[in-house]
């Protein structure tokens, strides 16, 4: 059992810990003095099974791209069921939906996905207002409440083939699947009593363990669209150390529940 004062590290409260098997003591090194040291060797990696540690995965922004491929497959199905062949002068034809609104919606979803996942709140609010006006105008014209006027026809008719919807949606789905289930899980954070470990499932990087006795962890607010696209299940965690150093763990599923569990472990 390692004593608490042996893990306290330097006065900054942020240090790398390394267990020396020859001396039987823990050596700590400030992060500012050099690269992170290997993690302690006496703490089992499966310690989370006994309820004394918790793993947290930070996901990339690709996690929100389901809003692209899921409607894409829906439009692909509509095109397959209700599409009509569009013939060219050379005799070739492809299957497309008779309504130009399907292509317009698909294009708006693609552009919105890029904007929502890469720009700040102010830009998102402007785009939300613009899209809300377009959707409201579309619904009112379809319901016959207002007459469609050319002055409001911002976008021309857009027709896309069944193959385009299928290939583009499948490509984005493959990227999303690989990011969420594979690449995002190659690195994870493990919280335990007195430890913050960054672990790598790669042979080219060594794990590191930090002293967290002086750690303060909070949940950062996320913008409106990220809450909507994640059904209010994703949040960002920020770790503040006494020396002013910070670590941000972005796009964490169940961030609030994990934050409560971390405070229980380090309480």
Structural account:
By secondary structure, this protein is α+β, with helices and mostly antiparallel strands. The protein folds into two domains: 4-60 and 187-266, PH-domain like (Roll); 62-181. Helix content is 36%, strand content 22%. It contains six helices and eleven strands. It has helices spanning 66-82, 101-118, 121-143, 162-181, 224-229, 255-266, and strands at 15-20, 25-30, 53-56, 84-87, 93-96, 187-192, 195-200, 208-211, 216-220, 234-240, 246-253. The strands form four sheets. A four-stranded antiparallel sheet has the order 3-6-7-8. A hairpin with a 5-residue loop joins strand 4 and strand 5 (93-96). The model is unreliable at 1-21 and 23-49 (pLDDT under 50).
